[in-house]
Amino acid sequence: MNKKTIIIVLVVSLLVAAFVLLPRAWSDQRNFSSLKKVTLQLKWLHQSQFAGFYAAAQEGFYKDEGLDVSIIPVGEDLSSQNVVSRVAKGEIEFGIAGAEQVIAARAKGEKVKAVAVIFQQSPVGLISKQKLGITSPRDLVGKSTGIWEGQDTQIVFRAMLNNAGVDYRKVREIPISFGISKFADEQIDTQMIYLINEGLEARSRGYAINTLYPEDFNVHFYGDTIVASDALIEKDPELVERFVRASLKGWNWSTAYVERAGTLSLAYDPSLQPTHEESMMRESLPFIFTGNGKIGSMASSTWQEIENILLKDKIITRSVPVGEIFTTTFLTS
User: Fold this and answer.
1) Which CATH class is domain 124-217?
2) What is the mean pLDDT of the chain?
3) Taking CA atoms, which of 69, 172, 229, 260 is between 20 and 30 Å from 244?
4) Reported pTM
């Protein structure tokens, strides 16, 4: 993390802390005769990556908005793309997905929209052991890289190489799932990972690693994004607004009270390690606060940039008007 990023994180965290310390009595709390039951499905298993949503539930922000939110993990297939499909079908009200999955779903005709972005920069990157001397994408030629095929890590990896003038076909992509066992056993030279999770694991094992950050090569992908269906947005925009408002309050709270927020995931999965969860929350901050906007914010230019990459790499085969991909309607409050 560079000095500029550290300063941004510290300044924004102080401002957020001042905000959440305001008495909740000042907030727009209304009396609801009953709570509306809704479901939020995550893009992965329970962990501190989703702390803000846990905070909204456990600190009462959803209840203040008249909501009883059930937070469930990704399905057994571990496919966050299927989470988006469930939202489109109306099986669940809200889902968490990567920006590329929202665009891919829309390109397939699934009527979903992004209503808020939590991670302004996707927390993925490429790690290698320092002894290999890999410090740029050009050093990857002839090397092997562990990739979870079809996931955001593969898309970002190829985009990073392309921007650096490297043909990704000159790097051996080795299919993997989650974890760093192949990296640890040196079955692969490098691995695309979630820096807030496997990156922590690699360091905890004592590995001296080099990291390539996609944003250093002008690859700017949004990370965790709240998704709702067009049908819900049209039928009950007030529900969407209430959910988004409460969720963003949860994230503001979590980024102000990092240590406490890092333990909230344990209520959903007691097998998680508290130290790892707290570290994950801290590691998330630079990807949430990038200096490009407050929590939730989105820009047409970034969505267009992501879509252009998906078209170039043939992840999608037709262009989608950016206005159909996202809406900032529910961020004004």
Assistant:
1) alpha beta
2) 91
3) 260
4) 0.90
